[in-house]
Amino acid sequence: MTAAAVGSVPLAAIAGPGLDGVTGRSELTLSWGELAEYAREATRSGGCTRPRLKGRLDAVDLATGERRLMYDTVTEAGGVLLMPCGNRRESVCLPCSRVYKQDARQLVLAGLTGGKGVPKTVAGHPCVFATLTAPSFGPVHSRRMRGKTVLPCRPRRDHKERRCPHGRDIACPRRHNEADPRLGWPLCADCYDYEAAVLFNTYAGKLWRRFTTYLPRHLARRAGLTQRQLRALVRVRYVKVAEYQERGVVHLHAVIRLDAALARQ
Hints:
Layout: E1 3-14, H1 19-23, H2 32-45, E2 52-61, E3 67-72, E4 81-82, H3 94-113, E5 127-132, E6 144-146, E7 149-151, H4 194-202, H5 204-223, H6 227-233, E8 234-244, E9 250-260
Helix pairs in contact: 5-6
């Protein structure tokens, strides 16, 4: 008999933590066996806050079309299979986002120092850590640091004489703490170019693609080579992370490495 496995998942990765979310029961009395089972499920789900997965797995005979049930989550405790959701966002699932960050850190570290199948000689390759940020769209409240010392936000000695075109004071002598809700807010909402900020976020992906297109051309020109000659010698490798600044504008952190053209790492 020739068969194929068919999965059906009508509802996935829903609900939060706790005994009620797992079993639908309101009582907290557990037997030792139930407690051990919950411990095993928590280990399997990695502490995920919404690890519920519902569905069934059928086997279909490709010759006759006969369909046979192989597995259904109704046989699990509470009728769900506890699996990590794998979401990368802290606001959605903190434990899964931490696992993703740790995995990403290990991969980047291996690309810099070797390990996980990457030879340690990679540590000698030319490499830079670049931060690509947007231009200013207007002055905003910021937390400036010098070492461990917090500096004044935007001090100006002539703030009484110099004002923005709308007559507002665009100086700020405060030393903002990390939780200050004013961080990222414009000193003058009428001066801030919101339209340009939104457009920059919208086209951030295309700007990065342009950067990766022109970087090899720039390297070839600086080395006095043609692009074909450069490609025969080196290959540009990179990993990037995008994050939002306090002002709500995307900026990119990138590790850029040059490898020999024939290298596999």
